[in-house]
Design goal:
This protein is mostly helical. It contains 5 helices and no strands.
């Protein structure tokens, strides 16, 4: 006589196997889906990295080519400038080498000449004076500056001479007596 329990266990055994097979199939399908998704993601990442490397390569090419393009665009101007300088140098060597330095010759050829200096403005600046000022202002400022720059007080002859010359120029320009 067979018991119902053992008969149920016998029929349950194929159910268990079927359940395990379904679970294994589900896990297999799931792992394949995950693998396919990972493969798709990897393929997309590879595609993006290739696109980025193409963009970076193009940017690098543009950056590397820029100086050469700039030089090509300005080459004619630079050649003309060099030819002009060569011609000026030739004239300077032939005619002006002994009478004036190259820099002065270049300034004159460019029409610049020397800038007009305003010695009065330089003297005012040296003594730190601004218009309008009085004779007493000038004398007080001169004495204070000479206390700092006089050779007997540790200053230099050059600075003392500069301050004295500035004072003399201001006195002459203002028409004041020494």
């Amino acid at each position: 006589m067979t018991s119902a329990l053992s008969h149920g266990a016998d029929t349950c055994m194929p159910c268990n196997l079927f359940g395990i097979a379904v679970v294994l199939y589900f896990l297999f399908v799931l792992s394949m889906s995950v693998a396919r998704a990972a493969w798709g993601l990897l393929a997309r990442l590879i595609s993006l990295s290739m696109e980025l490397s193409d963009i970076a390569g193009e940017a690098l090419a543009v950056a590397a080519a820029w100086p050469f393009e700039y030089a090509l665009d300005h080459a004619e101007k630079w050649v003309a400038i060099a030819a002009e300088l060569r011609a000026q140098r030739k004239i300077w060597r032939a005619e002006f080498r002994d009478s004036m330095p190259w820099d002065e010759f270049r300034r004159q050829m460019a029409g610049q000449g020397e800038a007009a200096r305003d010695d009065y403005a330089d003297a005012l600046s040296l003594l730190a004076l601004t218009e309008p000022f009085t004779r007493q202002d000038l004398d007080a400022r001169f004495k204070r500056i000479m206390l700092g720059v006089h050779p007997d007080k540790g200053g230099s002859d050059f600075l003392a001479q500069q301050a004295t010359a500035a004072r003399a120029l201001i006195l002459k320009r203002k028409g004041w007596k020494k």
